[in-house]
């Protein structure tokens, strides 16, 4: 090794370690917001949602006290309360649309509505959007039964409550990103609300950076196996993008990018943010779009080419999902608040908050991220373009072995090019932009450049 190269590497290592210590400092504002997420408040929201009797997609829309219509109006009225403290930036609406009878789970043409609150970004030239959702609708054993009580406390009162809690806390702050808080409908009948929103976003070319679906995030006891654990949450992400062009598929195969879809990069980002900000909660990365043969509201977003993941409790309790309320053989069936763990729900809401706040304050991700391949060498050279210089303090090069589930090393640099002593034959890389408070963009996976 030439002496000058040795000096360079030594300096690089030294600089890396010093800088790394700086950027792992917590942002006090994110910590403060997390303390504002309360288990008691989440519990009150879930109980209020249950009080509408049923929130079946095809249930009563006229009553003020029962059915999906009353529930939608209540969620909107809560958004309007939060708006009062948002300096005029939070606005709400019910986005109505009609779904034609489908011969399956929609008997007659039906009007549906997604309840949405939009927290407008502070920078009008910044079109980035983040979405967090839960589904408002509920069901019992017969998916067409729109009359019986369907409390839907955990499925998906939990996801709606988490989303609303974040709307309340985050709308008191300002972010350059626009954040959409949505209670979608029609999930149990076939993901209709989420599909409507995803197709609208695609048609209008929204710049969605991340979509977080929260569906069943408040139960910590499994049926049958009786596992009790409120320290882990699953985050599901697709392996290869649903939507990819022939060229993108070619590039994916060429660069061995089978475990680094944008959604999976987001899932790892969530794990990192959660490790940093949420005590006693571990993100369990599940390398599937959703549970085996099942789907959720993030799926139509993935199918329309957006980066989307699902949060879901670690262990499901099938005695309390999609069940008529009844007691049989001393087992009480039904999705009721009494079976939920609101401290667990609080931690998962906090994980969503740490993710969204970090992203919403992050500089724009670097562009044209490439890895040089012209020479055979055991070093790897990465180059990229700064998307934004105003907020960007530097960049993190993320490194892991090909068989590792998550990033193992971070190297901080201020330049837009780096040569590191890690061979591209043995490691995978990504680059993210970072500001002084440690808010990082989503990482970008490099493409080969000659
Ligand atoms: Zn659900």
From TrEMBL:
Residues 114-324 form the Peptidase M28 domain. Keywords: Hydrolase, Metalloprotease, Protease, Secreted, Signal. GO terms for biological process: proteolysis. This is Peptidase family M28. GO terms for cellular component: extracellular region. It is found in: Secreted. One of its GO terms (molecular function) is metalloexopeptidase activity. Residues 1-21 form the signal peptide. The lineage of its organism: Bacteria, Pseudomonadati, Bacteroidota, Flavobacteriia, Flavobacteriales. SUPFAM superfamilies: Fibronectin type III (SSF49265), Zn-dependent exopeptidases (SSF53187). Its main location: secreted.
